[in-house]
Amino acid sequence: MNRIERVLKKGEKMLIPYITPEFPLPGVTLQLLEALAKSGADMIEVGIPFSDPIADGVTIQNSSLVALKNGITLKKIFDLVSLFRRNFDTPIILMGYANSIISGGFEKFIFDAVNSGVDGLIVPDLPVDEAENLIDVSKTYGLSNIFLVAPNSSEERIKLISEKSTHFIYCVSITGVTGERENFGDGEFVNFMSKVRKFSTKPFVVGFGISKREHVLKVWDWAMGAVVGSALIKKLSNASDVSMCVKIASEFLSELKYGSFQ
């Protein structure tokens, strides 16, 4: 059974942090992954740094540039996931742009990803209509595909994305790029969630703009999970060493999930 499926079967509300590997410091990634797993992360989303991340706001764009300067590569990401897998079963989901994946071929990428211990994949710039090859190869190797639903997605689109996603779908809370937002969970959000709940046959998580405990609770009213990216990346950017990164990540995740540091 895929590790994602195992977590979903628990039926518990999930918190899914996003990190950019080797941000803000070289050598931080493995300890950061382990700290997040220990602090209650139900799954962890790991970005594949790319020079032109069109779905990401300034915070994650900048973190990608720093990570690339710090020497991150696709091979290093797989190696780090393999090391993480020695002691942890927390599902790892990669988020990467099509160019990063297609360059070496879908099959090699998916084989290497699964072999390292990766469980799922999000490719934000690959429409579900053009993803049949990815879906077919992913099924062969047991990799979960997660496709994005936006607030302006039609009923038919939501049904299609729900059908093609392996275990769950990812709802982008707002039309735009990633980033923190003060206002979250307004009437438009409720209408969007109501539509997804009505037309999706799969569980769904929500990302983009989530930065506070109250945001997480609003998401949990509707969805199985909340994804927190830019807010965590922004906090990590202030860290001067690896131990501080671990402390910041642990305390922030615990606050978001439990309301206090555990």
Q: Strand content of the residues, in percent?
A: 5-15%
Described by the principal axes of the CA atoms, the overall outline is: globular
Strand order of the largest sheet: 5-4-3-2-1-9-8-7-6
Sheet with most strands: 9 strands, parallel
Can you give the helix content as a percent range? Answer: 40-55%
- Mean pLDDT, all residues: 92
Number of helices: 12
The radius of gyration over CA amounts to 17 Å
Low-pLDDT segments, ≥5 res:
176-181
Structural class: alpha/beta
C-alpha end-to-end distance: 30 Å
Describe it.
Helix 2 crosses helix 4 and helix 4 runs parallel beside helix 6. The relative contact order is 0.17. Helix content is 46%, strand content 13%. About 2% of the residues have low confidence. The longest helix is centred in the C-terminal third of the chain and has 17 residues. Strands 5-4-3-2-1-9-8-7-6 form a nine-stranded parallel sheet. It is α/β, with parallel strands linked by helices.
